[in-house]
Amino acid sequence: MSGSDEPAVWTSYVDGEPVEVPATIAGVRAALEPGQHAQFDDEIGRTPAPQLAQVLAMWALPDGAWKQIEADFAKLEAGDHEGFHPQEERYAAPDVA
């Protein structure tokens, strides 16, 4: 339990700019359109605990983030890797002698 009165938030980035999104089930639900509540409640209720943060984040992300994600994947699928960098060396192709 949190002792803070500050709402829990995650920081996402849309077009390189930070955007705070709710980071609790109640906060995400409150940010949704009322017509989405039943679908959200159903999905959250069926989500196994290890996947809860992922599903909650998917509901919390603003539309601009999804547009950017879709554009990034389209760019990668087209073979354009400019601006994308592996996070770890393990993604580099091994040297073959």
Could you walk me through the main structural features you see in this protein, from its secondary elements to its overall organization?
It is a single chain. The protein has helices at 25-31, 37-46, 52-60, 63-77; strands at residues 9-14, 17-22. The protein is an alpha+beta fold and 97 residues long. The protein has one domain (9-77). Strand 1 (9-14) and strand 2 form a beta hairpin. It starts with 8 loop residues before the first strand and ends in a 20-residue tail after the last helix.
Summarize the structure.
This protein is an alpha+beta fold and 97 residues long. It has helices spanning 25-31, 37-46, 52-60, 63-77, and strands at residues 9-14, 17-22. Helices cover 42% and strands 12% of the residues.
Radius of gyration: 18 Å
Q: State the share of residues found in helices, binned by percent.
A: 40-55%
Enumerate how many helices there are, as a single number. Answer: 4
Strand content: 5-15%
Number of strands: 2
What is the string of helix and strand elements? EEHHHH
Q: Which residue ranges are poorly predicted, with pLDDT under 50 across at least 5 consecutive positions?
A: none
Alpha-beta content class: alpha+beta
Instruction: Domain count, please report it.
Output: 1
Q: Give the integer mean of the pLDDT values.
A: 85
Please specify the SSE layout and strand pairing.
Elements lengths: L8 E6 L2 E6 L2 H7 L5 H10 L5 H9 L2 H15 L20
Write a concise keyword list for the protein shown above.
4 helices, 97 residues, 12% strand, elongated, alpha+beta
